[in-house]
# Entry
Amino acid sequence: MSSAGSTDAQRSFIEQARQAQIIRATIEVLAEQGYGAASFARIARHASISPALITYHFGTKDFLMRGVLATIEERLDDAMAGTDDEPDSYPDALKGMLERFVEHCWSHGEEVSAMTEIRRQARSESLRQAFSSSHDRGTAELVAFIEEGQAHGQFRDTDPALFASVLLVAMGEFSRLRGRSADENRRIAVEWASLFVNAISATTAPRDPGSENDEQDQ
Amino acid sequence: MSSAGSTDAQRSFIEQARQAQIIRATIEVLAEQGYGAASFARIARHASISPALITYHFGTKDFLMRGVLATIEERLDDAMAGTDDEPDSYPDALKGMLERFVEHCWSHGEEVSAMTEIRRQARSESLRQAFSSSHDRGTAELVAFIEEGQAHGQFRDTDPALFASVLLVAMGEFSRLRGRSADENRRIAVEWASLFVNAISATTAPRDPGSENDEQDQ
Amino acid sequence: MSSAGSTDAQRSFIEQARQAQIIRATIEVLAEQGYGAASFARIARHASISPALITYHFGTKDFLMRGVLATIEERLDDAMAGTDDEPDSYPDALKGMLERFVEHCWSHGEEVSAMTEIRRQARSESLRQAFSSSHDRGTAELVAFIEEGQAHGQFRDTDPALFASVLLVAMGEFSRLRGRSADENRRIAVEWASLFVNAISATTAPRDPGSENDEQDQ
Amino acid sequence: MSSAGSTDAQRSFIEQARQAQIIRATIEVLAEQGYGAASFARIARHASISPALITYHFGTKDFLMRGVLATIEERLDDAMAGTDDEPDSYPDALKGMLERFVEHCWSHGEEVSAMTEIRRQARSESLRQAFSSSHDRGTAELVAFIEEGQAHGQFRDTDPALFASVLLVAMGEFSRLRGRSADENRRIAVEWASLFVNAISATTAPRDPGSENDEQDQ
DNA sequence: CATGAATGAGCGTTCATTCAT
DNA sequence: AATGAATGAACGCTCATTCAT
# Structure
């Protein structure tokens, strides 16, 4: 920690930088050309390095993809975490979450595309496990959230697991919806989010006076 | 050999039969093992023919996939066409359409899975065009239908193109939602369809004067 | 059998010819350059074909090596089989066997060298099995033969299994012993064979009158 | 760094220690996993060092193997040297030599295995030379010894060079003969040695006084 | 003295495609 | 109409070796 030698840190730095560079190149190739084109040769060409360097830093293609995946999911989780101030209602909370997701899709579109590519095509057991575990976790959180909202009468009485599945699928495909301008993108985001918020929100006399009390504890 | 007149027809018949056989085998391999495994060798083994025969009948892999696609889409279109008796309302019409779609997904699951596989993985320009053109056509029809429903006050006033896109994406991914029993599948189908019908249907007294205030807090 | 079409036979002929050619090339590379150099690329270059053609005909390197092995062992077994006229005594029978072996080593030296290379280096389970089964069979035959000779008092009372092992090892390495001329080779062969015949033959007054009767049933 | 005078010696010491360590690790990998697995990476992992360090100390793989070989042969030569007290007869001397060899094979089995691995697989010119020169030297010594024994009438009148070759080959392969227990090993060793002693010794009533005329009938 | 970083060559294998038959 | 034979390109991966530090 206090040792003068920067060798360790330096080495670590180089390795981390290389790994980050390779992961970035992999994401770009995945997003632009698809999983089928994401060979070591193409990724390496994209990063202006030798294909063997990828093996050197990641061992196998499987490890590379897992590294890519971990990076992407970490950033996505961060982006989805949201701010500290709690929204007033469950629908608002859902809306906020969806909008944060949309925001991240646009600011880090390549990552989401790449993640989708890996999910769709990866046949290795370890990758499938990685996906199914993160998918299950995401589904579980979403289901719990929906059930809470239903308990408060703010969400329609529909099957939470089904809605969660549909929503997650829609999120997985959202990056395809792209407008022609930033403004249009913004409008699309808002409408897209409200589409699902509407679909799940309780309908009859929603949010009208007299039922405000059920929003207090959220 | 026997009758000169039947040569042409015979050839044509044999050719069609072969192409159909190959397409069937391709669909099965795509659905069961994924695009990455759908090599000529595997398809040919599945059909008990020689790999060269696929090239002979389709020229390139791209043409094969386009042929597969055309076949699948044609059957899907037929299935979606519906009966002649018009439903009473636009929401009912939408619901009927979605249910026909779901029905087709289950009765021809392999085809829909295969179509999804091709859409996801195919990177050739011609296939992308094929997809985007059929997507555009589908979107256009759906948009027209939604606009009609909106004009009749039966559909909520949302962006028709966006809703169409979301719905088409959801349909493309629907085959993933699969329950554990036939009964559960039926329930899922009904809920899934009504989810989107609800999302687009005009709510009772939607947005009429007196409830405008519910948009204020977002 | 009587069908006019020669297609089947022809196809089979081409395939057999190619396989034989590849096996021959493999044997040559193995004998001249060793197992480590016996890559598909080098074998193919040696046979003036494409490396992929080896995979086409043999599937995997393991299958190729097993094919090579089967060919070599078949020819060796044929050569060792000997003639129909039985020798007079066990030592003579042993001597005849060893001389036939030596003869084959020189007329098919490359094959024996190649077999040795494969045996030494092959790490695949299937190849090891192939070798150990053929080795066990050879050992068993030899042991039985020695025990018979011992029972007739013509072989020295030594451990048959040990002698068999030593002899098999010596045979495996025999191809290294090579003189400078055909005559010298012939002399070496005779001396080499008699070395082991002497080592195992019963010493005290062998084959002198009075013990002739024990040679009758061999 | 501390004392200028010890730099040279220190370097030399460290260098020797490193080289010895690497050679040891190489021998172990060769004996346990075979030549094909003896890559720099594996050797280095076995020695808990970096692969580059091997190149640093030995330059090329060829030099490394030559170093390994020299070490092994030196130890083997030491072991074979025997004690100062001369045995009574040439057969006894041969027997003693073979038993010393066997002893070394068991106490330094890994080295002998490693040597065998290198001999079998190494194809570089320099290594072949190293082997053939040591082989020639061994043969020459053995031939001289046999000729001496023959001159004293204690060894059978057979080709000394051929016997030497056969014996050296048998020694090279001896490490394969391994029993299931220490006792069995001891028995095997004795029988193995006496097999060759018998094969070369003058036959009837050998070595006892008054039977020197027994060389007539062979 | 020692190593991490990096690479070009080579490995066995799969692939879509060509072509003579 | 159909296929076996054949190939070049590409794949993920390991290798011995180089070099800056």
Summary: Residues 7-33 of chain A form the longest helix (27 residues).
